Amino acid sequence: MYPLLSALDACHVRRQGKGNKVFVIIQLIGGNDGLHTVIPVSRYSQIAAARPNIFIPENKILPIKGTSDTGLHPSLAGIRDMFDNGLAGFIQGVGYEHPNFSHFRSSDIWLTGSPADKSLYTGWMARYLETKFKNYPEGYPSKEQPDPPAMKVGDTGTFLFQGKAMDMSIVVNPSIPFGASDTDAKGSAPDSFGVEEVRSIREILLQTDKYAGVVKKALDTPFASSKLYPKAGENSLADQLKVVARLINGGLKTSVYMVDMKGFDTHVEQVTASDKTKGVHAALLSKLSQAITCFWDDVVHMGREEDIAGMTFSEFGRRIVSTSGLGTDHGSTQPVIYFGANIDSQIIGHNPVIPDQVTVDDNLPLQYDFKAVYASVLRQWFGAGNDVVQSVLPGDFPGINIFKT
Amino acid sequence: MASIGTYSLKPYKSDLSEEDLLHLLRRCLLGAGHSDVSFYKGKSLGQCLDGLLRPSPTPPPVREELSDGVDPYVKLGGTWIHAPYESEEVNYRRKIMFRMWWTGLILNRDHSITEKMTLFWHNHFVTETDVVKDSRYSYYYVAMLRSHALGNFRQLIREGTTSPAMLVYLGGNTNFKSAPNENYARELMELFTLGKSPDIHYTEEDVKAAARVLTGWKDDKDKCVGLFDPAQHEPADKHFSAFFDHHVIKGREGKEGSDETDELIDMILRKKEAAKYVCRNLYRWFVYAHIDDTIEREVIAPLADIYFQNNFEIVPVLRALLGSEHFFDPAVRGGIVKSPADFLLGSTLEIGVTVYLAPEKTYTTLKECHEPWLQYHLNCEDLSQRIGDPPSVAGWPAYYQAPNYHRWWVNSASLSMRKKLSDGLSTHEGLIFNGYSISFDFLNFSRQFENPGDLQGFIAQVTKRLCAVAPAPSTIDQLKGLLVSGMDTDYYWQKAWKKLEDKPDDAETKDVLDARLRMFYARLLSLPEYHVM
Q1: Which residues of chain A make contact with B492, given a CB cutoff of 8 A?
Q2: Which residue of A has its CA nearest to B416?
Q3: Which of A226, B194, B346, B423 would bridge B30 by S-S if both were Cys, CB 3.0 to 4.6 A apart?
C-alpha cells in the first residue's frame, strides 16, 4: 500500500474510533414487567392463573428460535429478529438478595452496584471509569484521552456516572441544541441586567466545558442516520440512541453511554381491557424494540458491529399477581436484554419458577445477581482484570457468559 | 439592553416580598442562608436596614490556630498581635493564621453587613498582606477597617494613612524631608479619596505638597503603630493649587508636625468629589457596575450629598442606597456577577456544610474546626480573589476595569474551577483535604424549606432562594428529573419525605434523599443563574 494511503486509512480509523469498545446501557425507569417481556411459555398456565386480567394470550406470544419454552411479548418483534440472528440474548431472573421495592432505593442499588443493606455514593460505572481516568478530572481531557469518560444522552445526568469528585459524564439532551437553554431560544430583549449576565456566563461555560468542543464536533460530523428511525419526538429512546450513534460515528472514544426510557411503573392499565397485547406496556416495549433495532441499523451502517454492545435494566421487575386495575405492583427480579454482534446469543438461566398457589406477596426467585452481570461486562467486554472488578464491585460474582469467548 | 425603571432614591415600599428580601440579603451578606432569611423575614425595610447596618461585635484577635511550640511566642489558641518575631518563618506562619482568621470571620458572620463592608474597604483602601510582610501590621490594618466599616470615612482614612501596614505598603515610612516619597500622597488622592474622573483637577504639585505634609511618619516594630519623627518632617509651608482653593498647610515643627496630616485629610475631604468617588465605588459594589450619566446625576450625586452632609458617615449613605426604589428596580436584580467570595463563601453560608475529620469521619462544623478556614482562603485565591491581597493598589479589576468590570471574575479557567469546587462540595465524600473533608449538607438545607415533599413547591422555593435570575423551564424540568430519578410521578419523592418525617434518623431514607439532592444541587450550583446575584 502507498504510505500516504495507509496514513489516511489510519486517520480514518482513528476518527471513526474503530476498535474502541463501546457499551450502551438502557435504563427502563419504573420497573419493567419481566413476565410480559421475556415470557415463560412453559409456565403459561400458572402465570395466567396469577394474572388472568392482563396476561398475553398464548397464541400472541412471539416464538423465538431454538426453544418453544420461552417467547417474547408481541411488541418485541425487532428484538426477536435480533435474537434469531444471534444479535440479542436474555438473562433470566436478574436482581439481588433482599430486594427493595422502593424505586429510588432500588435504582440507587442498581446504579451504584451496592448490596441491598448498604449505601454506596458513587456509580459502579464511574468507579470503573476512575480506574481508566485516574484522578479524574485532574489532567483531563488529555492527549491520550481527549473525550468524555461517559456520555449520558437524555434530559438529566445519572447516578451511574457519579464519580468520587464529580459526575464523569457529559449530558446531551436530544431535544435541545447542545449547550443552549430555552431562554436563548426566545430571542427577546432581556428584562434585567441579570438575564444579560446569565447569558454571557452561559457563553463562557460553553467554551469552558472542556469537552464541549469534541462533543459538538462529533455531533456535527455528517452522518446519515438509519431510515428506520421514527420521527423525532415519537420515541424518546430512539431519539436518544440516534444521538448515541451520531456521537460514536463522530469519533468520540467514549466507551460508555447511558440512555433511559420512562414510564414502566405500570400499576394500572398496563394492558387494555379489550386487547391484552395493547396498552401502556405494549407501547413501551414496542418503542424499546424499535429503538434498539434502529440503533443497530446505524451500527451496521458504521461497520462497528464488533465494537458495540449494550444491555437493558430496570430497578426491579413486577409482582407475579396482577392488580385489579389491569396492572402490576413492584416486584423483584427481571430479565436483562443484551445485544451486539459479539455477544453469546442465548437465554441465560431458566424460566422463573412460579409457585402453584401464587399469592400477592410472591416474587420471582433470584437467578443472577445484577452485579455478576456487571462484572461479566467489565471482564469480558472491557477486559478488566479481577483486581479491577473487585475494586469496582466488592464481592465475589461468578462469571456469566454474555459475550462470545 | 435591559432598561432601568427608576433612579429614585425615595424609600422603597416598607413591606418587602421574599424576592425583595433575598435581593437585599444577597447583596449585603455573603450568601443568604435560612438563618438570615428567618432573622429578617416579616421585618419592615427599615428594620431590615437597622439590622444589616448594625456593626458586628469586635471579634477576638487573630490567634495561633494550628499547633503548640512552632511559634516561640504563643501557645495554641494564644494571640501574637503583641508578640515579636525573629524569623521570617514565624512571620509567615502568622500570615497564614491571619488569612484563616479573616475567612473564619466571614464564614461565621452574623446578620450584619460588616463583613461585606470590610471587604469593600479593603478593596477601596488597599494594602497587600504579602507586601506589608509583618503579619501583625496586616492584622491591625484589617481590624481597623472592620472597626470603621460602618463608621466615618475621615477617621478611617486618617488612621489608615499612618497605620504601619500602609506606611510599609506605599512607602510612607521612607518619606523623609530630604527625599520625599510621593507614592502614598499620590494614591491617597487618586485611589483612596478623589479618583481620576474628568472633574478632578488636582496637580502634580499638589501630590508633591501632600507628600511633604506626610514626611516623618514611620512604622514602629515594637508597638506596631505609626510613629511621627519630627526630625524627618519637612517644616516649610505647603501650598496647594486652585483645585484646593489655594489652601496653605502651615509648616509645623516638632510633634505638632503630625497635625498637618489631619489638616491634609480635612482639606481633601472638603471636596465633594471625594464623596462622589466613594459613592461610585459603593454603587459598583452593591448595585451595578456601569454608571452612566443618568445614574451619576440621579443616584451618585444625591448620595454624595448625603455623605457630605453627614460628615462622611457611611451608614446614612448605605441606608439611602440600599433602601431606595432604585436599588430594588427589577432591572438591576441579578445584575452582579458573584465574586469568588460571594460564590464560594456565600454558597457555604447559604447552604451549610459538614466537616468530617479523618480518619474516623467525626462530624464537626466550621465554627469548631478552623483548618478549613485556610482552605477556603486558598480556594478563593484559586478563583482569583486572594482575600487580603488584591492584585494591586487599585484593588480588583472587577471593580474598576471598564468595560468588563465584574465579568473579570468569570472566564474559562475560573468557571471550571468554580464547578470543580461546587461539584466537589456536592459529593457525599466532599472536598478532601489533609485530615478532613468538607461537604454540603443538602439534606439539612432542604428540610428547612416548607414541605419539601411537594416537588414543585420545593424546586420553586430552592431556585427562588439560590438563583437571582430564574432558570428556564427546560432547566427546571431537568432539575426535577434528577429529584424523581426520571419517574413520571412526584409520588415517590413525596413518600420519601413522608418517611423521613416519620423516622427522621432512618439511614436508608436519608441516603435515598441525599443521593438525589446531591445530583440536583450540583447541577443547580453550576448554572449561570447561580453565578449572579
Answers
A1: 102-104
A2: A208
A3: B346
Total domain count for chain A? 1
pLDDT classification of A57: cutoffs 50, 70, 90? very high
Of the candidates B43, B28, B20, B248, the residue with the CA atom closest to the CA atom of residue B116 = B28
Give the number of residues written for chain B: 533
The Cα–Cα gap between B350 and B20 comes to 17
Contact B220, B262 (CB under 8 A): no
Residues of B in contact with A130 (CB under 8 A): none
CB distance B11 to B324 below 8 Å: yes
Of the partner residues B406, B412, B423, the one whose CB lies closest to the CB of residue A165: B423
Q: Are strands B217-220 and B225-228 parallel, antiparallel or unpaired?
A: antiparallel
- CATH number for the domain spanning A304: value is 3.40.720
**Residues A183 and A195 sit within 8 Å (Cβ to Cβ):** yes
In chain B, residues with a C-beta closer than 8 Å to the C-beta of A152 are none
Which structural domain range is residue A79 located in?
19-392
Give Cα separations from B509 to A104, A105, B500, B502, B505 (angstroms): 9, 8, 6, 10, 8
Tell me the chain B residues in contact with residue A167 when contact means C-beta distances shorter than 8 Å: 423, 519, 522
Q: Tell me whether 0.85 is exceeded by the ipTM.
A: yes
Q: Which of B2, B336, B420 sits opposite A190 (nearest CB)?
A: B2
For the record, the C-alpha cell of B228 comes out as 511621627
Mean pLDDT of A389-397: 93
User: Over chain A, what is the mean pLDDT?
Assistant: 92
Q: Are the Cβ atoms of B519 and A108 closer than 8 angstroms?
A: no
pLDDT (tens digit, 0 to 9) for every residue of chain B, 533 residues total?
789 999 999 999 999 999 999 999 999 999 999 999 999 999 999 999 999 999 999 999 999 988 888 899 999 999 999 999 989 999 999 999 999 999 999 999 999 999 999 999 999 999 999 999 999 999 999 999 999 999 999 999 999 999 999 999 999 999 999 999 999 999 999 999 999 888 899 999 999 999 999 999 999 999 999 999 999 999 999 999 999 999 999 999 999 999 999 999 999 999 999 999 999 999 999 999 999 999 999 999 999 999 999 999 999 999 999 999 999 999 999 999 999 999 999 999 999 999 999 888 899 999 999 999 999 999 999 999 999 999 999 999 999 998 899 999 998 889 989 999 999 999 999 999 989 999 999 999 999 999 999 999 999 999 999 999 999 998 999 999 999 998 889 999 999 999 999 999 999 999 999 999 999 999 999 999 999 99
Cross-strand pairs, A71:
A39, A63
Q: How far apart are CA A332 and CA A323, in angstroms?
A: 16
Distance from CA of B22 to the nearest CA of A (A): 14
Cβ–Cβ gap B486/A262 under 8 Å: yes
In a domain, A11, yes or no: no
Q: Which residues pair with A169 in a beta bridge?
A: A150
Locus of grid cell 422502593: A102
What chain A residue is nearest to B337 in terms of C-alpha separation? Answer: A197
| Nearest one of A151, A170, A161, A181 to A241, comparing CA atoms | A151
The backbone torsions φ and ψ at residue A165, rounded to the nearest 5 degrees and listed phi first, read: -100, -30
CB atoms A27 and B486 under 8 Å: yes
Q: What distance in Å separates the CA atoms of residue A244 and residue A174, rounded to the nearest whole number?
A: 10
Mutate to test the interface with B, among A102, A120, A192, A264 (most CBs of B within 10 A): A192
Q: Which of A173, A181, A204 sits opposite B412 (nearest CB)?
A: A204
Residue A401 lies in a domain: no
Nearest by CB to B519, which of A105, A157, A173? Answer: A157
Q: In Å, how far is A202's CA from the nearest CA of chain B?
A: 6
> What residues form DSSP beta bridges with B431?
B438
Instruction: Judge whether A90 lies within some domain.
Output: yes
For chain B, the maximum distance between any two Cα atoms, rounded to a whole number of angstroms, is 85
Q: Which residues of A touch B410 (CB under 8 A)?
A: 201, 204
Asked if residue A382 belongs to a domain, the reply is yes
Query: Cα distance from A199 to chain B (closest Cα, Å)?
Result: 8
